[in-house]
Amino acid sequence: MSNEWFEEIAPGGDLIMKWKTSKHLFSKKSPFQQVDIYETTGYGKLLAHDHVVMATEKDEFIYHDMITHVPLFTHPNPKNVLIIGGGDGGTAREVLRHKSVQHVDMVEIDPVVLDAAREWLPQTSCEFNNPKLKLHVADGVDFVKKATMKYDVCIVDSSDPIGPATPLFNIDFYRDVFNCLTDDGIVVSQCESPYYHNEMQKTMLGILSQLFPKTHLYGYTNLSYPGGYWGFSFASKKLCPFADFDAKRTEGWDFQYYHAGLQFGAFQIPSFLKKLYAEYLTPLPQIGVKK
Ligand code: SPD
Question: Does residue 55 line the site of ligand 1, with CB under 6 A?
């Protein structure tokens, strides 16, 4: 039993976030990154890659609800889903709650993350043995380049654009993602923090808007990522997260964070971001305006 602190230095180096830990449960350097799991005193188990928090048991539901349910409730009948990354399993867990989903390919580059999650994070990895899920230990970039299957939804559940996730933030990757989506396909990607990475968010939206007819950014807040407010990019060949959303489909679900109102609310990004990304964002139908 130790009472030490796990520290993450926020981008720029001017802020440190600290979690009090009671045990260092897992530590291994893979060919891709340092992977650690701590028992914390207030946040449950904490997964870190290269000393950056990926998820804590206390608040992982926020990220995983929002990266999953927004695109899966936009698509009217998502059957085949591709997850790039997502090694802790939280995204797969939420995707597999959708009854229409018949098959999920999840492509995680780092087997150490999968093994660590399987052993220490049952809360997120609980669907790893689901027969609808096929786990591939492979490079997501190669996977989409060679993919022959077409997916209704692709979710890029990556770490930050340093280390193994770097190629997941460039245009060649997204060209291949575009090609492996159906004609009404959607891709949602982990898109960092507008407070720390707005140049990166802008680049990402610029890339997506070159390839997809519709490009949006939506936000969520959590406890564990510096700055609190983070984003997901949403790019789509046809479907609109407002016009094609049917709130009736969410009835009877027991969500922890997502709900039908947030399908609209999450896209209401602050004014400074609307200005900053204006050239790349597709206008959404206005809500709250009297006709
Ligand atoms: N700065 C941390 C960003 C991490 C995003 N990915 C989290 C993975 C959860 N499945």
Answer: yes
